[in-house]
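Table S5 (text form). Sequence records supplied for joint modeling of the two-component complex.
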Amino acid sequence: MERNILEVTSLSKNYGGTEAVKNISFAVRPREIVGLLGPNGAGKTTTIDMVLGVLKPTDGSILIGGRDVASDRSEALALTNFAAVYAQLPGNLTVYQNLKFFGLLYGVPHLERKMRDVMADFDIERFKNIKYGVLSSGEQTRVSLAKAMLNDPHLLLLDEPTASLDPSTAEIIRKKIRDHISGNTAGVLWTSHNMYEVTDVCDRVLFLSHGEILLEGDPKVLPRQYGKKNLEELFIAVTREPLIVESV
Amino acid sequence: MNWKRIYAIILRQIYLIRSTATRFIQIFIWIVVDITLWGFISKFLAGVSGSGFNFVAVFIGAVLLWDFSTQVMQGVTMLFFEDVWSRNFLNVFASPLRISEYVSGLVVVSIGRSILALVVMILLASLAFGFSMVVYGAFLALFVFILFLFGIALGLVGISIVLRWGPSAEWFIWPIPALLSPFVGVFYPLTVLPAWMQTVGWLLPPSYVFSGVRTLIEGGTLSVPALLGGLALAALYIVLAYLLFLWVYRRAIKTGLIARYSAETVV
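The corresponding structure-token record, covering 515 residues in total, follows.
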């Protein structure tokens, strides 16, 4: 049996009396895309920050590829990468310089070749010598995704990865991410407020509300189980009336 | 330690210095102003006093060495500020980069930057004002090393303050060398200071350097044990400053400040 790419166990985060994340446990398996869903303030970004090692959990453990983020931080983070709308790359470096800088940080072998590959994959070769800060938001998103793919991460964390992209480019990006995980043993933790995208791309979703996982399952099957037409309806219902989950 | 990751930090700074003239000019502008200003003041004082006292050696030498220490400190803080200004903390600290590697990168950049500044200062001081460092002899290396260590320690304290209290604390970092200069006797012996200031002064490693510089210029015998005491003090401050930065960083990870740095404080 293959080992889980990400293993989160009894994870909690308490900010001075406020419980942002309450004792959650979940896993991301190889070749699996897991959607982390929930309303604003549900604890999604707090969870991702803890997985990325930039926020220390109050309790619980996080293993990435079997490496503990708390005790083997550098080794665990070398197996991951991320792209988030709120984590823009330095705008005063060109696309090439950004990729080179982060490629070195992540210890990417044959870096120049890999940079050429990801620039071609995300159609950003023509921006190679242009500063990241002057690109459009959609172009910046593609550069951030190229950076996230540089080290062929075992665990890819994506926070609203297609938020600034037009529908056509978003579809191409989703395909590239799916191709990435099917080509190796990687897993993806994906947050998005676009329920159609989540239904299309995710193998499994976790609904987070008030720091707790309310429900979990296949996004194509889950809505029917709760008498809803689609994932968006289920999202709205869970957000407004979390108790319906317990009553079903 | 992973050398590639340290190289990444250095390379990023090279990219930035190459891309804009302001970053390059900033390394030299104040040291050129300082050397020029104190060069003319020294010449003027030498002319009016008629005492034969070597004002150029005392003042320009002191300014040159103190500016070197300041450049070392700024080498560390400027690179850290680049991450503050470009809001790059999340990308950098969510990578496999270790804190020891990050700090090593800052130190290497600072070495390059301060050596460049030192060479320019020596050239300007010797060509324009006839200043010679020969008078320091072999002690020059020790003077420079002590000031380098102290500059690094100051830089680490500076970035700890900014990491702890947010970007608005940046204003507090720039005047730190000016605040310390009265205590370390850059231009005068510590004996002219009140007792409490002398006590503070002898706790600061540059005091031993500037005391040694004056002794050599006056033709006296320099106390090597005292100078080594200053070196030991500088080494101690480096360790303490690194531990301080580590503590502030770990606190920022615990509170979530690294991920929400623009908020300046999360508790």
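Note: The first strand of chain A starts at residue 6 and ends at 15.
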